[in-house]
Amino acid sequence: MTVTTTISLPELVADSALLTRVDRKYLLPVSQLSELQDRLDGSVRVLQIDGLTWFDYRSCYHDTPGLYCYLAAGRRRRRRFKVRTRTYLQSSQSWLEVKTRGPRGSTVKDRIERRSNAHDELSLAELCWITRTLGDRQIEAPAAVTLVPTLTTNYQRRTLQVAGQDGEPPSRMTLDVGLSCELPPEAPGGSLVVGFDEFAFVETKGGPRASVADRTLRSMGHRPLGISKYGLGVASLRPDLPTLKWHHLLDVCLAA
């Protein structure tokens, strides 16, 4: 996938930080990424940092021992939340993030920077920040102080800014490839790993109305799916748990 026009991180943040946004997620064969770029040609700028346009991400998801977050998402609870640490491997920057649901299906992300050498375990100060953040979002979190590492994911990401049409603001689109999911050693079954190398996980981030990127994906025959890397990884690696809303993704979309 070749993109010639680039955008810096400060420009991207200034134009479309989008910490509160509507996320739409799509599953594409990796082989279709070139076609997607061709259809968006002329309206896209790719994020470039230090000459790179693909970046390695590592995320660690934290949940209660009873997997409250996984079950709440799988059962489509409206007042659910997700907690993860995310490390940008090229820069060694690490962030703690809390994602919640806002009005009209929007996603709200709060985050704080961690020490670059932070481990997966959360500190007491970080747990207190999570509790305060969920309280600010009016979400009651059962046993938040018992959050433990539950799943790690690794993948490569390219971030695109997509220009709007007819006065629309720009939106963002991320392309994730090479996804692998791993359970922590202490989980049932031990350090199991599953990979999804044949697929690209595409996410658009914009306003309530479908963006240029969404309309382009629709023209290619793709519709938004209920994709969650955390849900997908846990459902794939924990046969002792119900697959819930991810059964269609596992049994139909990824099995095609």
CATH top-level class: Mainly Beta
Q: Major beta sheet, specifics?
A: 8 strands, antiparallel, barrel
Q: Catalogue the unreliable spans.
A: none
Output the CATH topology: Hypothetical Protein Pfu-838710-001
Sum up the overall morphology in one term. globular
Averaged pLDDT: 88
Q: Name the beta content range.
A: 25-35%
Distance between the termini: 23 Å
What is the number of beta strands? 11
Percent range of helical residues:
10-25%
Radius of gyration, CA atoms, in whole angstroms: 18 Å
Strand order of the largest sheet: 2-7-6-5-4-8-9-11
Topology pattern, helix = H, strand = E: EHEHEEHEEEHEEEEHHH
How many structural domains can be distinguished in the coordinates?
1
Structural class category: alpha+beta
Could you name the CATH homologous superfamily? Hypothetical Protein Pfu-838710-001
CATH architecture: Beta Barrel
Question: How does this structure look, described?
Answer:
With 256 residues, this protein is an alpha+beta fold. The chain has a single domain, classed as Hypothetical Protein Pfu-838710-001 (Beta Barrel), CATH 2.40.320.10. It is 23% helix and 35% strand. A hairpin with a 4-residue loop joins strand 5 and strand 6. It is globular and about 50 Å long. The relative contact order is 0.20. The model has no long low-confidence stretch (mean pLDDT 88).
In short:
This protein is α+β, with helices and mostly antiparallel strands. The protein is built from 7 helices and 11 strands. The longest helix is centred in the middle third of the chain and has 13 residues, at 124-136.
